[in-house]
Specification:
By secondary structure, the protein is an alpha+beta fold. The chain has three helices and five strands. The chain is globular.
Length: 107
């Protein structure tokens, strides 16, 4: 029996960035045990089919400008500020899971 498709909740403010390819990763506080392979991003009322390509566990203070850009941000500071809004208790030593994905083409 196959496992149900995994769903990742994502703020609807990021929907267009995902669809147009400017956002190809999402970063979550803590250890997230997503599986590589098919998943759905749930943005508001929309489900976007994706494939999870990689998962990386690191500390908040190890995030890079490249990761910020993949997450849809122009600067590392904007990226970290956004994460602090979603996770008010996050600090430099907090673990985060960096989830890299691509959007599946519609049939």
């Amino acid at each position: 029996m196959s496992e149900p498709i995994q769903t990742i909740e994502l703020s609807d403010k990021f929907e267009s960035a995902v669809i147009n390819g400017h956002k190809t990763q999402t970063t979550r506080k803590g250890l997230c045990a997503y599986r590589l392979g098919p998943a759905l991003l749930h943005c508001g009322n929309t489900y976007i089919p994706i494939t999870i390509m990689s998962l990386r566990l690191k500390h908040f203070d190890e995030l890079t400008k490249t990761e910020a850009q993949r997450d849809g941000f122009a600067t590392l500071a904007e990226f970290k500020d956004s994460l602090r809004q979603f996770y008010p208790t996050i600090d430099d030593s907090s673990l985060v899971t960096v989830v890299t994905f691509y959007v599946e083409e519609a049939d």
